Amino acid sequence: MHRSSRNALVPALLAAALILAVSSGCGRRARPSPMGSVIGVKIYEHPGPFGPLFDEWRGLGVDTVFAGESLARNADFRNLVRSNGLTLYLIFPVFQDPEAVKTDPGLAAVTAAGTPAREAWVEFVCPARGDFLARRIDELRRAVAAADPDVVSLDFIRYFVFWERVAPDRTPASLPRTCFCPVCLAGFERTDREQGHAQVTHFFKQSMQRGLVNHRTG
Ligand SMILES: [Zn+2]
Predict the structure, then answer these.
(1) Which parts of the chain have pLDDT scores under 50?
(2) What spacing in Å lies between the alpha carbon of 151 and ligand 1's midpoint?
(3) C-alpha to C-alpha distances, 166 to 98, 163, 169, 175, 217, nearest whole angstrom
(4) Ligand 1 centroid vs 10 CA: distance in angstroms?
(5) The pairing of beta strand 118-119 with beta strand 87-93
(6) Which pLDDT score is estimated for 102?
(7) Strand (E) positions, the chain?
(8) Phi and psi at residue 26, in whole multiples of 5°?
(9) Which of 72, 127, 143, 175 could form a disulfide with 67 if both were Cys (CB 3.0 to 4.6 A apart)?
């Protein structure tokens, strides 16, 4: 995909999410939080029944639920969110998608060492993959239509880093650099051709290919 149209997709996704968040909140008011604070819970899975869960949250003063897509789509769960006057955030991971990478390894973001961008359970799709991003935008539309959240939380909408494991004393240079997948390398080449630095990119690409060979055989 052309770079300019690819770059246009990220703000489009953000704009779509904001519009959906605003429009889905029309017609009802979330319970106001004291002094603007939020007492929230983040939850991805629960086997049910949900009644005791909401009883416990009520006792704790919870006013906001950040829910994964499957729970947010669950009608029983959502009814209890509404009847308890809670604000519903739909958690929507954008580039964190191990299943997509498993199905199509070519989607994986790649580090400067030529290895797939992966740390523990964090596994990113390359943010420059316009085809994947277009698919996620469609999936977001469907998720919002089904879950009718007050707000969408766009998680993992960044280049790869497992920031929960980045200690305060880490230097920026020690963080993984991405993305150097074939799509991004082709983008670098296009940019450098336009700027007259093709030989530099060619040298870099050859180095990357050596890195990939080392990775595959190591
Ligand atoms: Zn890439």
Answers:
(1) 1-29, 213-218
(2) 29
(3) 21, 5, 8, 8, 29
(4) 14
(5) unpaired
(6) 96
(7) 40-43, 64-67, 87-93, 118-119, 122-123, 151-155
(8) -65, 140
(9) 72
What separation in Å is there between the alpha carbon of 30 and the centre of ligand 1? 39
Tokens at 141, concatenated: 């539309």
| Dist. CA 79–CA 61, nearest whole Å | 18
Is 91 in contact with 153 (CB distance < 8 Å)?
yes
Tell me, what's the pLDDT at 54?
97
Cα gap 7→99, rounded to integer Å: 24
| Two tokens, residue 162 | 């497992």
- The model's pTM is 0.71
Please tell me the predicted confidence (pLDDT) of residue 217.
31
Using the mean position of ligand 1's atoms as its centre, give its distance from the Cα of residue 143 in Å. 26
User: What's residue 83's pLDDT?
Assistant: 97
What's residue 45's pLDDT? Answer: 94
Cβ-contact 191, 183 below 8 angstroms:
no
